[in-house]
């Protein structure tokens, strides 16, 4: 804080004496400022009004910060800036809000129709305290279960684009394009989606269609939906199976909802595994549509489920190797939320409508049929959730039941059974056990369905075990059995240590699986040893592997693999990788790269098969476009949280980079132009801005904090300026050479009020050196400051005396004597 003049010190001493003579009164009443000032000597009272005063600001009787403000005789205050906030229970966003609210003159006393349920404002001369009172003072200890919806709602449009391409030489290619748009009007959210898909399976035609077109409104604990959508249960943590008929419908849905619950937690995802005997590609399908594809190396490994949509649903995993389908399996994705409130044991989902396919290249098997259903979840006790579901479709009833039972704090049993009238039945069960250094998962799937009057049954069992042996060693085991195929086993051991002064990982894996194809009856057995070495502080990675396995024709073959990966910083290319694999057929090549810029996020890969020399390639692209009435922007951000903030950054520094810090924990880099900052829907928060490097010490931001509270699909807009600035120090005089105190001085970057002596300090944009002087809100004079005015020292500019002559847009300097240096106590660079 700046030091104060003797006048200010005298005023503070006098006010302290007044406070001690207030006959023990501890609570100041709303006494007009002029009446309070009557107790002060006339000489001191004249220095209280229309000049900057240092005060303590309290919000609901809690310390908000020290600040500079201006007090006027008509019982109004104007907050200039906060100077300190040490040990304040409030964050900078709260101070920024009140600084903005009180930036113009505001009357003391009660306030109606103000933001934040602002009740009253009071200023006490006796202890230089500004008190702010809001309705929150009565609710400080009252926890709110639900978030309140944005006041007045929000508007905006968010479009997410996803493109997946895969091609194998001399084979049919696979492609998938998905567009999902979320818009907000008021507190309603409108969803629409469409996709085009072409499978690599020969004979399959191109599919296109609209996947959703509905509107939804979130309420406290409930939600309502109307339009065209899938009748899958919403708002439930446990989904009972219902058999066939889960296609889209045109209708109405009413559900439980935890969207507005203030505290939400999500459990871990049950791991999903695939195996391959050489580098391959796993395609992940949901309801017949390709939703993701990933490269996998030889051996047992878990797929990355973080990129998959939330919910509890079944996926189909297709392992494609050398352009051929090697294996195909089913798996369940469990990404459900915990049971939030045990005081509300019942969750529900009700729907009714007409089954149809809207703007679709295929027709629904139940086209035009009336469909209705209900799904319930009930919390029996702290460890057991049961689910019941029923659906009427195609003049038949489908029933389902589920149970989620925690046997202990480490073990859980999940079971799901369904029966479809005239179609069949199915059972899916999982037992999960976790211990200090590992976990165990046992799963069982069985189904029997009638297809074209033929009963088809499927059965599979799997046991997965992971064990952390020590800080540097871990092991895993997977046993699986599939009807009509046999039993398979995979075991691996991993050891991390220092090798050649770098972090290295040894891995030994062995496997014994069913035959690769029907062409041979010999089982696929083998063993592999691999070494992975990191160089350059984890930025570069070399790895190699030696192994022995069963080849396609059933004979034994030796294998080897060499590879290299590199993480790249400060580039649109984020990582690249190359590898070669050697086997009895020849040499195979693999390469990949991930790219990300301001607008697109993508990864691409290409490989050459050692078996037949054919090339295969793949490309995944994602991009998000957001818009509202004020602007349009695109982003590569894939952390979509339901709402967005467009930041239009204007700057005279082409290489400027800012960091946008969301209060939810996310950080986004901003550059001049239009930027997108993803933010959470429904939950109020703040985005704060600062500089990415220290080279921007003399650049000033027009705003450091932006608050948001948006509906899902809502988009807010902020125009942010970042210009190189100087701290200007000068003194304002009238045409007769008398000091002008209590006058407002402002420019493009900031504003201040002159001291009684006429001195002022404020930040000025270097590219626009202008000043405007206001008196009682009316323009008084304007200055255009030439670059050779006064003295400049780094980021300080001493402009000397400025003669304010109304109706003359010019600056005049005293010519009789050099410009005096400002008193040090007024220097307060912003």
Helix content: under 10%
User: What is the SS-derived class?
Assistant: mainly beta
**Envelope shape:** elongated
Largest sheet: 24 strands, antiparallel, barrel
Q: Strand-residue fraction? A: over 45%
Provide the residue-averaged pLDDT: 80
| Gap from first CA to last CA | 11 Å
Low-confidence stretches at least 5 residues in length (pLDDT < 50)? Answer: 1-29, 265-269, 808-830
Signal peptide: 1-24
Region (Disordered): 808-830
Keywords: Signal
Biased composition (Polar residues): 808-818
Topology:
Layout: H1 6-20, H2 33-37, H3 42-45, E1 52-59, E2 62-72, E3 76-84, H4 92-101, E4 106-107, E5 109-110, E6 118-124, E7 129-134, E8 154-168, E9 174-186, E10 188-198, E11 207-219, E12 222-230, E13 248-256, E14 273-276, E15 280-286, E16 289-296, E17 299-302, E18 311-321, E19 324-335, E20 346-355, E21 370-381, E22 384-393, E23 396-406, E24 411-420, E25 424-435, E26 438-451, E27 454-468, E28 473-482, E29 486-499, E30 502-513, E31 524-535, E32 540-550, E33 556-567, E34 573-583, E35 586-596, E36 601-608, E37 615-628, E38 631-635, E39 642-651, E40 658-662, E41 667-670, E42 673-680, E43 685-691, E44 699-701, E45 705-708, E46 715-733, E47 744-746, E48 751-753, E49 759-765, E50 770-775, E51 778-784, E52 791-793, E53 796-803
């Amino acid at each position: 804080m700046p030091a104060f003049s003797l006048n200010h010190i005298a005023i503070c001493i006098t006010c302290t004496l007044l406070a001690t003579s207030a006959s023990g009164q501890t609570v100041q009443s709303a006494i007009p400022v002029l009446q309070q000032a009557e107790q002060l000597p006339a000489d001191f009272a004249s220095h209280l009004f229309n000049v900057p005063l240092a005060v303590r600001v309290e919000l609901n009787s809690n310390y908000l910060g020290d600040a500079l403000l201006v007090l006027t005789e008509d019982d109004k205050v104007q907050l200039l800036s906060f100077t300190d906030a040490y040990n304040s229970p409030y964050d900078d966003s709260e101070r920024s809000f009140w600084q903005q609210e009180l930036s113009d003159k505001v009357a003391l006393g009660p306030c109606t129709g103000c933001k934040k349920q602002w009740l009253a404002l009071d200023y006490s001369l006796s202890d230089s305290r500004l008190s702010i009172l809001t309705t929150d003072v009565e609710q400080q200890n009252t926890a709110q279960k639900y978030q309140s919806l944005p006041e007045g709602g929000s508007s905006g449009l968010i479009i997410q684009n996803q493109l997946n391409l895969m091609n194998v030489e001399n084979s049919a290619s696979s492609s998938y394009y998905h567009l999902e748009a979320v818009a907000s009007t008021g507190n309603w959210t409108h969803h629409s989606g469409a996709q085009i898909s072409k499978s690599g399976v020969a004979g399959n035609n191109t599919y296109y269609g609209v996947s959703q077109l509905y509107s939804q409104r979130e309420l406290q604990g409930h939600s309502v939906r109307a339009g065209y959508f899938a009748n899958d249960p919403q708002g439930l943590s446990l989904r009972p199976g219902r058999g066939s008929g889960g296609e889209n419908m045109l209708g109405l849905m009413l559900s439980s909802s935890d969207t507005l619950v203030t505290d939400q937690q999500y459990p871990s995802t049950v791991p999903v595994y695939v195996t391959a005997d050489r580098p391959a590609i796993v395609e992940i399908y949901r309801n017949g549509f390709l939703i993701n594809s990933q490269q996998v190396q030889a051996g047992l490994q878990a797929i990355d489920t973080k990129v998959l949509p939330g919910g509890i649903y079944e996926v189909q995993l297709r392992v494609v190797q050398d352009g051929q389908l090697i294996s195909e399996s089913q798996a369940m994705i469990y990404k459900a939320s915990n049971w939030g409130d045990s005081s509300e044991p019942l969750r529900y989902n009700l729907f009714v409508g007409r089954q149809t396919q809207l703007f679709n290249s295929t027709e629904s098997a139940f086209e035009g049929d009336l469909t209705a259903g209900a799904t319930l979840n009930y919390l029996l006790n702290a460890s057991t959730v049961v689910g019941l579901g029923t659906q009427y479709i195609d003049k038949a009833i489908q029933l389902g039941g589920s149970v989620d039972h925690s046997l202990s704090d480490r073990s859980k049993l999940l079971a799901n059974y369904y029966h479809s009238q005239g179609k069949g039945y199915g059972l899916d069960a999982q037992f999960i056990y976790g211990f200090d250094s590992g976990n165990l998962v046992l799963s069982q799937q069985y189904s029997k369905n009638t297809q074209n009057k033929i009963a088809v049954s499927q059965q599979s069992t799997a046991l997965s075990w992971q064990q952390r042996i020590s800080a540097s060693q871990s092991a895993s085991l997977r046993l699986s059995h599939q009807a009509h195929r046999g039993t398979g086993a995979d075991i691996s051991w991993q050891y991390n240590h220092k090798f050649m002064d770098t972090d290295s990982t040894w891995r030994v894996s062995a496997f014994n699986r069913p035959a690769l194809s029907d062409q041979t009856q010999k089982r696929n057995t083998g063993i592999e040893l691999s070494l992975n070495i990191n160089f350059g502080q984890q930025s570069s990675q070399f790895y190699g592997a030696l192994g022995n396995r069963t080849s396609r024709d059933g004979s034994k073959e030796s294998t080897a693999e060499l590879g290299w990966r590199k993480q790249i910083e400060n580039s649109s290319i984020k990582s690249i990788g190359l590898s070669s694999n050697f086997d009895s057929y020849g040499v195979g090549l693999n390469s990949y790269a991930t790219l990300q810029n301001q607008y697109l996020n993508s990864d691409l890969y290409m490989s050459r098969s050692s078996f037949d020399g054919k090339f295969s390639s793949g490309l995944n692209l994602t991009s998000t476009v957001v818009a509202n009435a004020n602007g349009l922007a695109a982003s590569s951000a894939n952390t979509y949280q339901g709402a967005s903030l467009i930041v239009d950054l204007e700057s005279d520094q082409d290489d400027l980079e800012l960091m946008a810090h969301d209060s939810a924990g996310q950080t986004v880099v901003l550059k001049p132009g239009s930027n997108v900052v993803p933010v959470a829907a429904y939950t109020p928060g703040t985005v704060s801005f600062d500089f990415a490097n220290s080279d921007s010490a003399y650049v000033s931001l027009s705003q450091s904090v932006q608050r948001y509270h948006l509906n899902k699909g809502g988009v807010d807009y902020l125009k942010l300026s970042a210009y190189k600035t100087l701290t200007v120090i000068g003194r304002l005089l009238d045409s007769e050479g008398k000091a002008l105190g209590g006058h407002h001085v402002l420019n493009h970057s900031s504003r201040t009020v002159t001291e009684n002596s006429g001195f002022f300090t404020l930040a000025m944009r270097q590219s626009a050196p202008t000043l405007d002087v206001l008196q009682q809100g009316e323009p008084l004079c304007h200055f255009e400051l030439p670059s050779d005015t006064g003295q400049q020292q780094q980021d300080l500019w001493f402009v000397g005396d400025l003669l304010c002559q109304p109706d003359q847009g010019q600056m005049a300097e005293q010519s009789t004597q050099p410009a005096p240096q400002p008193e040090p106590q007024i220097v307060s660079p912003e």
